[in-house]
Specification:
The chain has 757 residues and is of the alpha/beta class. A seven-stranded parallel beta sheet has the order 1-7-9-10-11-12-13. Strands 18-19-20-21-22 form a five-stranded parallel beta sheet. It has a two-stranded antiparallel ribbon with strand order 2-3. Strand 9, helix 9 and strand 10 form a beta-alpha-beta unit. The chain starts with 15 loop residues before the first helix and ends with a helix.
Length: 757
């Protein structure tokens, strides 16, 4: 039985790629030096896979930023404004991802969206009338040859043409028909080139197949592959899917001339039923995704073996991961502070390679010792249930999820209490985490800085931050969050039920890596988490300072969740803990409390029919539970970013927050039309500039954004904010950008008030 994975993490076990890229951006190393780091990481990946017994290590899963962006480059889908920069291929890629600004040029980054139901982000391809598809698969071919030279026969992987077309932005009325023929032609060129190099397999990833498909989309997929597969020659082609099942088109897909089909049996709820009902062709390999590529818990071998048995008499099975392993950390080997008893329950990417091999060994050779060891692990009583917490959740009633008075009624109370101008200006919360801040936090963590000295340092940073905001002219201030390492990890560290790793980093986008905490047991709040710093900040100014919290859905979605209880139960545990914090902030005199739900849409089921029954029916009430007991005059904010929210606007309004800020700048304010169409009642702050790009927007640029917003929304409904927190930016970008934001707002206020009079 063959053993396979879909892709391996590319950042390195110690984030080597992140640090090399940042040096390159600062011009501290050359492109040649950056490429050396990249080559070392690829070689290490292939070695790990081969040593674990994976039959075909994967190539072309490496990327300097994002694999969808790599495909845009390979197809020549580069908008003219980036070509005019006359940069080399690598720097063009970075310009698309990060924007580009110098004395002569000022080009924004392309929009960034969540990759299906993950916390990974991709750069959205842009198709216009000027787009000309031109095949340039040198990256894929070079990495395949690089592996071959090093002694590894790999299976190159690439995102497929169907998914590319589904995810792309189409400008000026252009449709996929405009490029379809050339797109098929480009992949045909790739087939020919791999055949010429003696390549055995090509993996084509088509995750868009697990989305709801129209009949037209089904026909589009069939049309593409009927044409494309005619040209595969000796090359074997694997259709790889993940994040769900193929219920809309399974019957047609298995008729196509693929040599292998990869199905997800972890998130694909209907995958087993589809195979049982319609069978699986004996002339194809079934790449069975049975090892969870998203979570970090050990595979339960008995359950996996039972699943494989349910598939029936299929001899041509390949044991596979359910999705790319880039969504989990690289290895547990670097976790020297966690006990062996705890680590035994975890499998990161390298450990999942071993699981793939062991499942194959047990399935084929009936290796009972491996199975018995796994059974013993799951027979252990890992955590003790919190009976009191369980009863508290059981006794929740509808009243616990309803805030009174109504949104409109309490708005009047908040206007009197806060006395803010039209178009109130604020930030999303965090301010730049300078080297000085990170150094002090590390020194305190290591015991090199006393608690009193560290707190004095933080108080000084908060004072500086408040003074900066006041000088700029912001209306509602934030304390800067200098005490926080991460918007989820910080809270997890103060909640019972979490455990933490040292180096379990996962790529979110580009150089941005996160270290998700792990939900180990039942979650409770032993003491206040943020009141100390919010209350101190408010004592230093007469302007309102927001209390900053992360919401329960985002905390869970950006953690590695338990698998022994439901996501709903874990979220309600978190909601009760955050509710306690909200009420303590209110008691401390904080009049505005922001409860960020940046990841609300992230775990929304990919199929619309599952939205409410499997997610929205409990995630939205969980947010309402958090703030249901606050006073009318306490203003509740939330923030959401880098997802497509237009189709769940009514559910977002039902969160019953007073103000919601959205990422909007990279998406050309497209969400405004959806808000207007749904008669959105909540006050809104559509982000007016992109903080994920280092470029600095001008006052005029922000003013134009504001005018676009006010052409569609009443001025009384609008707040003015950046589109996300400023943690990842530097002061040299943050200060002028916020200054321009306030300047633009004041101009618009003046013009609007004068016009209205």
């Amino acid at each position: 039985m063959k053993k396979s994975i879909i892709a391996f993490p590319r950042i390195g076990s110690n984030r080597e790629l992140k640090f090399a890229l940042e040096k390159y951006f600062r011009k501290e190393i050359s492109e040649a030096e950056l490429q050396i780091v990249a080559k070392e990481l690829r070689l290490e990946s292939w070695k790990s896979q081969k040593e674990a017994g994976i039959d075909y290590p994967i190539s072309n899963d490496f990327s300097f930023y994002d694999q969808t962006l790599d495909l845009s480059i390979a197809l020549g889908v580069i908008p003219e404004r980036y070509k005019k920069l006359k940069l080399n291929e690598l720097d063009t890629l970075f310009a698309l991802a990060r924007g580009f600004q110098d004395e002569e040029n000022d080009v924004k980054a392309r929009p960034m969206k969540k990759w299906f139901n993950t916390n990974y982000h991709y750069i959205v391809p842009e198709i216009s009338k000027e787009t000309v598809i031109k095949a340039n698969f040198s990256k894929l071919l070079n990495e395949y040859q690089e592996a071959k030279t090093a002694g590894f026969e790999t299976r190159p992987t690439i995102i497929g043409p169907y998914t590319f077309l589904i995810l792309a932005d189409y400008l000026s009325g252009v449709t996929e028909d405009a490029i379809l023929s050339d797109l098929i032609g480009a992949y045909t060129v790739l087939f020919d080139q791999l055949n010429n190099l003696g390549g055995e397999w090509l993996q084509i990833e088509e995750p868009a197949l697990v989305l709801d498909q129209t009949e037209e989309e089904q026909q589009l997929f069939i049309k593409i592959y009927q044409e494309l597969l005619k040209n595969k020659n000796k090359l074997k082609v694997l259709l790889q899917t993940y994040f769900g099942d193929l219920r809309d088109s399974y019957q047609e897909i298995i008729k196509l001339d693929f040599d292998g089909i990869g199905l997800d049996f972890v998130e694909g709820r209907e995958s087993v039923k589809l195979v049982q009902k319609y069978g699986f062709p004996q002339d194809k390999l079934l790449f069975a995704g049975v090892v969870n590529g998203k979570n970090i818990w050990r595979n339960h071998y008995q359950k996996t073996l039972s699943l494989l048995k349910d598939l029936g008499n299929i001899d041509n099975i390949v044991i596979n991961t359910s999705c790319s392993l880039q969504h989990v950390p690289v290895t547990t080997e670097n976790e020297i502070k966690l006990s062996k008893e705890i680590l035994n329950h975890f499998a990161f990417a390298k450990e999942k390679l071993v699981e793939v091999s062991e499942i194959s060994e047990i399935y084929v050779k009936k290796n009972t010792s491996l199975l018995d060891k796994n059974i013993a692990l799951f027979d252990k009583n890992r955590v003790q249930e919190n009976i009191q917490l369980k009863q508290k959740i059981t006794h929740l009633t509808d009243k616990d999820f309803i805030r009174t008075p109504s949104l409109v009624e309490r708005r009047a109370d908040q206007i009197k209490a806060l006395r803010l101008p039209l178009l109130p200006t604020t930030t999303i919360g965090s301010f730049p985490q300078t080297p000085e801040v990170r150094k002090a936090r590390l020194q305190y963590k290591r015991g090199e800085l006393s608690k009193s000295d560290y707190e004095a340092f933080l108080e000084e940073k908060i004072k500086e931050c408040l003074e900066l905001q006041d000088n700029i002219g912001l209306d509602v201030l934030a304390h800067g969050e200098f005490e926080r390492n991460d918007m989820v990890e910080y809270f997890g560290e103060q909640l019972d039920g979490y455990i933490f790793t040292q180096k379990a980093w996962v790529q979110s986008y580009g150089t941005r890596c996160v270290k998700p905490p792990i939900v180990w047991g039942d979650i409770t709040r032993p003491q206040a988490m943020t009141v100390r710093w919010s209350a101190y900040a408010q004592s230093q100014t007469s302007k309102p300072v927001k209390g900053m919290l992360t919401g329960p859905v985002t905390i869970l979605n950006w953690s590695f969740p338990r698998e022994d209880i439901s996501l709903k139960e874990s979220t309600l545990q978190l909601a009760l803990a955050v509710q306690e914090e909200v009420l303590d902030l209110e008691k401390a005199g904080i009049k505005i409390i922001q409860i960020d739900e940046a990841a609300l849409r992230e775990k929304l089921p990919l199929r619309r029919s599952d939205w409410y029954s499997e997610y929205l029916d409990w995630s939205i009430p969980a947010f309402r539970l958090v703030h249901s007991k606050v006073k009318a005059e306490t203003q509740i904010h939330t923030h959401m970013c880098y997802s497509e929210f237009e189709d769940i606007i009514p559910s977002i309004d039902a969160m019953n927050a007073d103000v919601i800020s959205f990422e909007a700048s990279r998406s050309q304010l497209s969400i405004i039309d959806a808000l207007k169409a749904h008669h959105f009642q909540t006050l809104v702050g559509p982000g007016v500039y992109d903080i994920h790009s280092p470029r600095i927007p001008s006052s005029q640029e922000i003013k134009i954004q504001l005018e676009k917003i006010l052409n569609k929304l009443p001025i009384e409904q609008v707040w003015v904010t950046p589109d996300c927190g400023l943690k990842t930016r530097g002061n040299k970008e943050t200060i002028p950008s916020l200054t321009h934001l306030v300047e633009a707002t004041k101009e618009v206020r003046k013009e609007k008030i004068t016009y209205d009079k």
